[in-house]
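Reading a protein record of the kind used here takes only a little practice. The integers have meaning only within a learned vocabulary of local backbone shapes. With that in mind, consider the following protein and its fold in token form:
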Amino acid sequence: MKRFFLSASLSILVMLIANSCWSQDNAPHVNHVAVYVVDLQKSADFYERVMQLKRIPEPFHDGKHVWMKLGEHSQLHIISGASADVPHDINVHLAFAVASLGDFIKHLKAEHVKFGNWAQTSEEPQTRADGIKQVYLQDPDGYWIEVNNDRF
């Protein structure tokens, strides 16, 4: 009987561990996003000054990488080496949420950063079908960035 309890307890423990390892909690999550840029310092300055991201240590120390903190466990990796700016479609974009879209728009204006709605016909934020307000801008290499007021 003692052996059965030990075996049953061990089986339950293994099932619990297996379930926690392979459940929805083990679904992939964003670790980092990388952008390949022409001018590393110009792009790093943009993400630090305009997007207000914080630099974090990067392991290469080769002058070709700058890493920024995006969230608790996610990063932006800026990598130099692109030979030229290439056009990027607005459908492919990095999206950020801010507590106050109005304050962020004031910040963009103070930094003289061009921004607008999806069509780039107005500086007024547009409202998505789910009620979230958003604006779009581009980084120095033309990568599109959405900034919205989502609170999920």
User: Anything to note?
Assistant: Strands lie at 32-37, 54-56, 65-71, 74-80, 93-97, 115-116, 126-127, 133-138, 144-148. DSSP finds three helices and nine strands in the chain. The CA atoms of residues 19 and 65 lie 38 Å apart.
